Amino acid sequence: MSSLNIVGRPVPQIDSRDKVLGRARFTDDIRLHHPLEVAILRSPHASARIVAVDTSRAAALPGVRGIVTGADFRHTFGVLVISKDEPAIARERVRYIGEPVAAVAAETADLAAAALALIEIRYEVTDTCLDPRAGLKPVAEPLHPGLGRDNNLHKQVDQHYGDVGAGLAAAPVVVEKRFTFAPVTHAFTEPHATQVAVDGRGNLTVYSATQVPHYLHMAMAEVLEIPEHRIRIIKPHLGGGFGGKSDPFPHEMIAAKLALVTGRNVRVNFSREEVFISNHGRHPTTMTMKLGYDPQQGVTAIDADIVIDGGAYGSFGVVTTYYNGILLQGPYRLDNLHFRTRRVYTNKPMCGAMRGHGGVNARFAAEVLLDMALVQAGVDPCQGRIDMIHRPNTLLSGGFRITSVGLKGGLEEAMRRSGWRDKYGRLPYGKGVGVACGFYISGSAAHIHRNNRPSSTVRLTLEFDGTVTVYSGAADIGQGIDTILAMMAAEVLGIGLDQVKVVVADTQLTPVDLGSYSSRVTFMAGNAARNAAISMRRLLVAAACRLLELPEPAWEKPEPPGDFFRQGRRRPDYSSDYLGPNPDYDSDGFRLANGQVTQVASGRSVPFLEAVRRALDEPGILQTFGTYRSPKLGGTFKGAAAGLSPSYSFTAFIVEVTVDPETGFVKVDRATCAHDCGTVLNPLAVQGQIEGCIHMGLGQALMEEVVHYDGVVQNASFLEYKIPSAFEQPEVVLVPTPSDETEGPFGAKEGGEGPLAPIIPAIANAIYDAVGVRLTEVPMRPDRVLAALRKAGAA
Amino acid sequence: MTTTNAAPAAAPGEQARVLTLRVNGIEQRGIAGPGTTLLEFLREELGLTGSKRGCDLGECGCCSVLVDGRPMLSCLLLAADVAGSEITTIEGIARGETLHPLQQAMVDEGAIQCGFCTPAMVINGVDLFNRTASPSRDEIKACVSATVCRCTGYNRIEQAFVTTAERLSGKGGAR
Amino acid sequence: MTTRMTGFDFERPAGLPALRGLLARLGKEQRRFTLAAGGTDLMPQLKQQQLATEVLVSLNGVGELAGIELASDGTLRIGALTRLAEVAESPLVRERQPALAAVAARVGSPQIRNRATLGGNLLVNNRCVYVNQSPLNRTVHAPCFKVDGDVCHIVKSAVRGKLPQCQARFVSDTAPVLLLLDARLVLLRGRGERRVPLRRFYRNDGMERNVLKPGEVLGWIEVPPAGGLRIDYDKLAVRNALDFPSLGVAVGVREDERGEPVELAVALTGLGTHPLHWRFALVGGAAPAAVVAQACARAEKSVTTYQQDFFPRDYRKKMIGTFVRRGLRRLGRGAWT
Fold first, then answer.
1. Less CB within 10 Å around the terminal CB: N or C of chain C?
2. Minimum distance, in Å, between the CA of residue A271 and any CA atom of chain B
3. How many domains does chain B have?
């Protein structure tokens, strides 16, 4: 492969100029013609039957144009096919405080608010289940009776790999602890917002702050009971998601329905409180974990019993239930694993996917226990970990296929850069260093909806002026996928970034990408864009060959992979654009650079623009497609698809903390991070993702906590839900952590979520090094640190 | 569902009237009630959507604008209460297509992810650099801490401030 | 949904005479009005319907009440409308009362300090987890006394009208420092004015918070010369940004002309309904360390705190002594701790 022009260089996001000028249009910045304002009435009860709904007085208020209630929606929905349990508006019962019970569209926001006050809803309050432990016992009225259980269990996963009993019995060191994790939430800065334009034929254009335009498209068609072609989803600029906008939401259904019934454009935006009470954040978790360690073999076994509090509805919860256990299979060798995770419905806002989905809390437990074991065994916590890291190209007992792993070298370098050997165990009381590692998926190999479509498809068009336009359904949520798509095309075609436009996240114009979640877009949409560009490149090389009167190179046409779900059944060759996994693009003897298409061997060349015209003159339009499909992976047992990914990132953190033994305050001074995301496509973006993970992990580690009183979120504000400020953020040192990833685009893996999980236990382990106490309750608030110190007799 | 077609009533207790504010150097008119905030006025009446509504309670900082040169939270200001003041929004910071040095540094340093807090970071930074060309590390931290950013961890933003200071003092030079 | 404020009229008198005239008229018309200075505390309360008003009177046109002057006796006369940023940045304040300049810089966020006033910070409303909430939240728990309900969720036995009826906690950062500095408030009423020492200003209640009478306007804050008193203020807060004090401790040591310590003073905010302060003589035998221990014990014993904050109440209480001792160390009196 020839040297790279754009990949690997620090590239500002292509829309950063718009953002820094205040011109970038977020959903609520769009100005539709004379929209109605939507207000949503929300339940003041955590659990109640809706006995009667009377909207007549509200409807009589002049200026009110439409009112919808639960009766207007027959279908429930949910991001996972297996738990479509959420109504757009509660119908017979409400399950959490803040659940929509009616909505109004009116000429002004004040009128909409006034109308809400006139809606009368009679409730019959029913038993409330707020504690997941209580929900595991039989209850009089389960939240979701349709599951046929006598309790509030939503999902139980109980899986064994290897022989945990033997693994623990053989281990010289066995440690066990119980951990609790408070609920935390995404706290993105842009509140949820949706605007819907409706045309004279009843077609809807939905502008929405969503990470998943495609899933929203499908869910909305189903809930509104109209064909998909009548709905066009557009994701404008999006002000942060972190998983919090990765479900279809009730307000999106409500706005669309109100647009349909009023025939008017509508607009809905959330207050900050509404964002908090819609939640979808990380599950509050209690976890008992036992870990066996043998200095010769590493971790011999992990046995975990986990209860996660799901809140009122399913969201991504089934996946969370799996991820809490199966993501313990890395980053270290582990042959014996048993976990049981139970997700329980409670009368609280639902939990779902949040950055590092499912892997974060279990990672904390495992890394703290491992640290205890290493200390007991007298093994250096860094070295002990290095010795156990997965080797490249291994198949794990749970079916994960590990490809590239660069963590060993990265952690060794992090040890040097952080001065680990001089610091660990040697700093004065109150100062400490700690280490922890993690790994994460680069997208899920299996689709949420069982089908054999590509994970991501990209269309690329060529213009007469030699520029290209990338069309992709991928959702830029701030992580910079628009820029990555442009980089892919520019690199392959040998043109500048200014010669690439991107048209994205518009279901009318762009081919399907499944969305921005599970760290999938760079890997999957990036590969699709790269492949589309490779196909375009071949057309241009062919045109150049015609101009130079040379024979066209013979490009290979590989077989596409088989059916993902049905092992062994080959599927028909429906993709003439399939190029094989991560095809090489410039081994055909041609080079596209500096405005020329050159045959390398002969040095003969034609101007790039001439090749473009030769290629375009005849058809008048030229477009190519690129797709990404995961290779077939995993076993055939139930749940085998969970956590499968074409590639995994690996991370290590070494953090330095100062613990104030008088107040219990923990200050993270420095975080040294080795993150193996394969090839660093854009150093600015990777650095930003890692630093963002540190921020969010720091918040969960030390201060963030959604507080419920009687089921109501009591700190639904940026003042009371404490996310770290610039003062709390540590100095960050990133160390190069290269690996030989072969399937990612230009060798890239994920970088946006993996670094979150290990920062939290690294802080805990550093606290132990500093003051000798093990914190098992997260957040590790000052009062908890102080209480632990007192208990240890040190304060 | 219910749909109705009656004429809208005036909002209760509102004495909405034409308000003229001096925004980005020119007099601009819109309709404001007594309780209309500056943020609402800028966004809904003047169409200046660069100032963001992140919390509407003065906690996130995303609605920051300059009032007589100092950053304030436009969601906590009544539009009628700043009549006579000079308001500068993010739309009024660049000189034509020439970015303010801090804007340029934010772009160059990758200080921008989702971009929702970016206008406010710039507004607060412009005030800082108006007061001092070489802010201390703590002054930068204090300035950046004025706005909630959930994406960046603030490191790259602080770096943009450092780079701006270097460029303003001629030490760094453009990249 | 955007939180809009409706249902009130807006007045912005230009100058003190206009303000006096307006207040007289509103009094005659018996209209419920609310005075707003920076409004950074008030606007969220109006938006969340924690309080209602018929007329919102902006003081921002009353230029007479903004600015900092030095009287011939060395007293700083600070207009109540002086922005906190101006207090923090004022060379006069920094030179004469550095502790006041320092504490002004610890309030809220930079944008809040650019708008919020020193007078407003002294009058900042008491806060409670059951009050500073949205209307939806407040319907879940029955509305409490402070929002025109008939219960206190913190002290169930509380009775309306019998102080303390409300346990909403006091959160002004500047009050403890100004208390130790013996600040006086100049309160304007009609054409007259009265002076009230800050130490007699606050009342033990989260609703009837102070002795300001209806129609009375806080005009100036007078800060006499520090007279050898050096003050350190620090606050317990999760973050070094935005947060109200979960506990704020001002510690002062007064020295005589020879530099000998003669008095220890402690003032607290963030706990209880009003700021508390104590003075302890350091002359006449008792070892300073014993006085410090006595002061900490006294403070810990005197305050009433409830589970109203991010930090548990026992922790906040325990931190009083810790903060006093740390303040003393910063004042160079670590030997007493």
1. C
2. 7
3. 2
